[in-house]
Amino acid sequence: MGSTRNTPGSAEDRRARIQRMRASEQARERRNRLLFIGVSTLIVVGLIGGGGYLYLQKADEKEQTEAAEKAQAEKPVKGEKSWKAEELGRDHVSTPVSYPMTPPVGGDHNQVWMNCDGDVYEKAIPDVNAVHSLEHGAVWVTHNGDADPADVDKLTERVKSTPYSLMSPVEKQEGALMLSAWGKQVTVDSADDPRVAQFFTKYVQGPQTPEPGAACTGGLSS
After folding, report:
1. What is the pLDDT of residues 4-17, one digit of tens each?
2. Where is the stretch described as Disordered (predicted)?
3. 55: domain range?
């Protein structure tokens, strides 16, 4: 009997070709899957790495800005006026007080403070209550009718975002824009004057504060 051979076109030959085609297709699918995973991983790593870099860059910029502001705050504020502690009374009184400066930077005052947790008042507030806020370490931003409305708007935003600060109009003050803390006061040229940031950094709950940590809420609100 003659031997059996695989002839072209036989069923066995077709099965062999199909198996080879399947093996080739599976190998191609594995390569494509590995390529996809590799590219996706690179993209994710790139995004994470880029996000991490941006985060570190922003953190570094913030740290540098804070360091620069702190260094600037340690310097004297140009044009600032100062009053010694012994020149400023601290008694609680229920009667009007005549202050030697406008706006006042300290002295006897009402037992109730003005709320100074970033509070902006559209109308004038009582000096005797505002002075109590300064005693608690607040910075008081004031303006008169000569102030540029754009500067008033910018200072309003700064105050609203700063605990232990308050803002109100004081029509009889000399400068259009003035900043006051306990025993400290400066007139600035605009809201963008670098002394604004310096004054805030230096005196919001600064070393001049007679009662550091005292409340700026729970007082008079209008």
Report:
1. 454 555 777 777 67
2. 1-25, 66-86
3. 10-74
